[in-house]
Write a structure and sequence with these properties.
heterodimer, A: alpha+beta, Cytochrome Bc1 Complex, Chain D, domain 2, Immunoglobulin-like, 3 domains, 5-stranded antiparallel sheet, 13 strands, 22% helix, B: 262 residues, mainly beta, 5-stranded mixed sheet, 4-stranded antiparallel sheet, globular
């Protein structure tokens, strides 16, 4: 006992020391101390029950705000494992998920809880399901990581095709395969395949090692099957590095520079002048229903844009991934600006226009009208129903294999509608983005506000 | 543990073939059971010793609901295999008014007895983006061979509650995998998420007395020991029905189950 205590003390000292240096490596603390289930339960009720429920059934009071829903821990079925499909995860798997969280999902990381506390949670989680006893962990081996330089993207692409990945993830990995829209999880809820070009959105991690494990073990409860009996470790590593190569590095930024061009603004998406313009990526988040529920899996999770101005007008080139091209209900897009003369705080689009909303300047495009409209409005209705006066040009829109590209332009100081936002060089202008996916029950995804700065 | 048990049984028993492993195998069942009991002396004492038979018909009354068409267009590897439109196989009524895909089995009356497990695999084939057969009977620990005969990705997502679930990819034509279920369960559902119309149902039992109705709507449970049994008929959409039947040695009794249109 004394020995154990001493060892833990040492580990804690090491942990604190390493943490201070930003060098914490979770795998270094992989040893489980004696399980204290009661302590784990106390922590669980305090930290986890809010989403996963008091009894662990995934029905906590905030569960419906999340998509996918929090896992029913009593099922004993876990997504991110190093074990065979259907078997329980190892303690280390659970500890890893607690420690790292699930990227871009509802599950945060719990690094701020002391390591022994996380182990207590692991011990308690294992009491919630008989699966740990009935189907004990059956660890799999993914072989030796050959490293990127010993893999070949062309070979990896062949494996991607051979293993049928495109059926769900799409030919270019944009999550738009022919089966993507009809997938359901084991609880009957709609679920979407990962957009493999968005490495930051993979719940289990976007590095090749994490990808290899997901392919090998599958993601239990989701449609993603295990390839343990269908692919060799060599193929899995080729595939993992190929999938990693599909990822586009995001450029999240809060301030988007808008360079000035001499001459006319580009009207086409492939105009070479866009090349030199810095790209800005903006995260989108689906809005919850009025009752506080997230009712469908998000399909549009980010928008990328570039902008140029010529002193009179501003042109945007926007791209976003949407798994289907829809005209009824239509895919649609809105650029949101602050009406002229409005200063001070901006309203969050997560709640706009729920109650007593301030008016916003909506500059919108819809795949049905293929037309740009602008209105100062207290709801999205005017620009979505076609009631707003047509302003500016037709949007030059193009849909290709799961991605929309749209080029629109707008005067910096439009004469109509009355009160339209006036953009001017040297002044920050807040802008936010809204995307509707007609193929996903018209779900609306919104961004936070970022600033445009015209040069 | 299970491996050892199975190996012992395999040596001892020889070829006890589960009845009801396919739509058309019902008529073969009595002969196969007879082989198992007569032909392998090592197996005596654990193999079914009975000589009673319960057989019958599952009928359907009312008008059969229109079968919804399956849209396979999203995967040409599926749609190109079918010249005719494919409909959902949920309620299939035979021309003679009987019902297909009904799993009929002994639900009660065999408690306390043990039965050897057949080592002969039952095949669940994915062909034309449909499962063949759609309804299967299987003994505990009897191998289920899952075969992909299509040139497209299928995932086999079997969701038993009493045994270990699995979700395995079969991306290549000709791929096979063998699985077992370790505990009785009526029914285990298997689906393919890639082709959401695909569903198969597997009845897993600790004994070999089960059968699935085919295109003549009949079933036969042969080689039963004398006793009183609860016979249940299960249908994926129309629910279950049960009857109590008593048989003596050498008896043959006939029962009829009638399912009504929903």
């Amino acid at each position: 006992m004394t020995i154990i205590r001493t060892r833990h003390l040492l580990l804690i000292i090491l942990a604190v020391g390493a943490g201070g240096l930003g060098l914490v490596d979770v795998s270094a603390f992989a040893e489980s101390p004696p399980a204290d289930v009661a302590a784990g339960r106390a922590t669980y009720l305090q930290q986890c029950a809010r989403c996963h429920g008091v009894t662990g059934r995934g029905d906590g009071r905030d569960a419906k705000r999340l998509y996918p829903r929090p896992r029913d821990l009593t099922s004993g079925m876990f997504k991110f494992r190093s074990t065979a499909s259907g078997s329980a995860p190892t303690d280390q798997d659970l500890f890893g998920t607690l420690t790292n969280g699930l990227t871009a999902g509802g599950m945060p990381d719990w690094r701020h809880l002391d390591e022994p506390v996380r182990w207590q949670l692991v011990a308690y989680l294992k009491t919630l399901s008989t699966n740990f006893h009935d189907n004990p962990p059956q660890p799999l081996s993914v072989g030796t990581d050959p490293g990127r330089t010993r893999t070949n993207p062309a070979t990896g692409k062949q494996v991607y095709e051979k293993l049928g990945c495109a059926a769900c993830h799409g030919a270019h990995g944009r999550g738009n395969g022919s089966s993507a829209a009809s997938l359901t999880d084991n609880w009957g809820m709609a679920i979407r395949p990962a957009d493999l070009t968005q490495g930051w959105s993979y719940r289990g991690g976007g590095d090749p090692q994490a990808i290899a494990w997901r392919v090998l073990t599958g993601i239990d409860g989701s449609p993603m099957p295990s390839y343990a009996e269908a692919a060799s470790p060599e193929d899995i590593w080729q595939l993992a590095y190929y999938v990693r190569s599909l990822q586009e590095e995001p450029r999240w930024t809060m301030i988007a520079r808008v360079p000035r061009v001499v001459g006319t603004l580009p009207a086409a998406a492939d105009d070479p002048r866009w090349e030199a313009v810095p790209r800005t990526d903006v995260r989108l988040r689906n809005v919850v229903s009025a009752s506080g529920e997230m009712t469908a899996p998000p399909t549009v999770t980010a928008v990328s844009f570039k902008a140029l101005h010529d002193g009179r007008s501003i042109a945007f080139r926007l791209t976003w991934h949407d798994p289907s091209e829809d005209r009824q209900p239509p895919d649609a897009f809105a650029l949101v600006l602050q009406p002229e003369g409005v200063a001070g705080d901006v309203v969050t689009l997560q709640t706009w226009p729920l109650s007593d909303p301030p008016a916003l300047d909506l500059y919108a495009w819809s795949a049905r009208e293929a037309m740009v409209q602008e209105a100062i409005a207290k709801s999205y209705e005017p620009v979505l129903t076609g009631a707003a006066p047509v302003q500016g040009q037709r949007g030059a829109a193009h849909y290709d294999d799961g991605a929309w590209t749209l080029v629109v332009s707008r005067p910096l100081a439009p004469k109509t509608p009355h009160g339209a936002a006036i953009l001017s060089p040297g002044r920050f202008a807040p802008v936010a983005f809204v995307v509707w996916d007609g193929g996903n029950a018209g779900q609306r995804a919104v961004s936070m506000w970022i600033d445009l700065t015209l040069q | 543990m299970h491996q050892t048990q199975r190996a012992t049984w395999v040596i001892g028993i020889g070829i006890l073939v589960a009845i009801g492993c396919g739509d058309s195998q019902g008529s073969d069942a009595p002969r196969q059971l007879a082989q198992a009991t007569e032909g392998s002396p090592e197996g005596r004492g654990t193999a079914p010793q009975g000589s009673a038979t319960i057989s019958g018909t599952v009928t359907f009354s009312g008008s059969a609901p229109a079968q919804e068409r399956i849209k396979m267009d999203a995967d040409p590897q599926c749609s190109l295999q079918h010249k005719e439109p494919v409909t959902k196989q949920e309620i299939v009524v035979n021309p003679n008014g009987t019902l297909q895909h009904v799993f009929v089995y002994v639900k009660q009356g065999l408690e306390g007895r043990t039965f050897p497990t057949s080592s002969q695999p039952v095949t669940l084939e994915q062909q034309g983006c449909l499962y063949h057969p759609r309804v299967i009977g299987l003994q505990v620990n009897q191998p289920l061979q899952i075969l992909n005969s299509d040139s497209t990705l299928h995932n086999v997502n079997c969701k038993p509650v009493n045994s270990k679930p699995f979700n395995l990819a079969q991306p290549v034509k000709g791929m096979k995998t063998t699985k077992t279920f370790t505990a009785p369960e009526v029914m285990v559902k298997c689906v393919c998420n890639v082709h959401p119309w695909m569903a198969a149902y597997i009845g897993v039992l600790s004994h070999p007395y089960f059968n699935v109705t085919g295109d003549n709507g009949t079933f036969t449970l042969a080689g039963l020991p004398a006793g009183q049994y609860t016979i249940e008929a299960w249908h994926e959409k129309l629910g279950t029905q049960a009857q109590t039947v008593s048989v003596g040695d050498g008896d043959t009794k006939t029962v009829t189950f009638e399912f009504k249109a929903p």
